[in-house]
Amino acid sequence: MKHLIRVLGVLIIAALVAACANQRVPAEAALKAADDALAPIKAEAAKYVPDQAKAVDDAIAAARDTFAKGDYAAALTAAQALPAKIDELKTALAAKKDQLMVAWKDMEGGLPKMVEAITSRMEILSKSKKLPKGLDKAAFDQAKVNYDSVKTLWSEATAAAGGGDLMAAIAKGTEAKTKATEILSALGMQPPAPPSPK
Amino acid sequence: MGDETKPGDAWDATQWHEVKPGETLWKIAEQYYGDGSLYTQIFEANKDTLDDPNKIKVGQKLRIP
Lengths: 198, 65
Fold this sequence. Notes:
A: 7 helices; B: two-stranded antiparallel ribbon
C-alpha cells in the first residue's frame, strides 16, 4: 500500500511538471504576440503617452522575467493579459494625438491673426514721425527683434507640424505666442482676450 | 492706452477703441501712433462704418490697426 502511494505521488508530481512544461510554448507565443502588437506604436507611445507606455513595457518585462524563471503557467497568464493593456495604450495614444491635433489646428488658425495685428501696428509705427507715449525707440527696436523671433518660431512650428511632430509644433507655437504677447504689450496693445466661459 | 480686444477669441488681437467725447481721428491716431497725421490708417480700417473721417460718434467702436 505504501509503495502504491509513493508511486502515485511521483506520478502526480511528474504530471504537474509536464503540465507546467506544456505551458512553455503558448507562453512564449503569447509574449511574442504582445511584442508584435506593441512594436508598431512603441515609439509614438513612448513619446506621446510615456507613462502608459512604460506601464505596458513593465508588464511585458515582468511576464518575460516570470518566463525566464521557468514559471510558464504564470508567464502565460501574465502574457494573456497583455493584449488588453496594449489596446488601452493604443486608445490612449489615439486620444492624445487627437487632442494635439485639435490644439494645433486652433493654433494654426490663431497665431497668424496675432502676427497680423502686430505687423499692421509695426508698419504704421514705422511711418510715424514720433512714437506714442509709453513706447521709446529702444523698446520699439526690441519689439522688431522679437517680431523676427516670432516669425522664425512660427516657421519652425509649421515645419514640425508638416513633419508630423505635433508636440514640437505646439511647443514652438506656444513660444511664439508668448513672444507675440510680449510684443503686443510693448507696443501698448491688448493681448487677445481669454475665451468666454461656457 | 485705451486699446480693447473683444472677448471670446484667444487669438484675435484686433485692437478696438471706443470714441469718447471730444475725440477726433487725429487725436486717436496721436494716442496710438504718436502721429495724428496717420489718422487715415484708422479711417481706412473702419470704412465699413465710417463715411467721413470728420464724423465719428461718441461710443462708436473703431478698429485700430
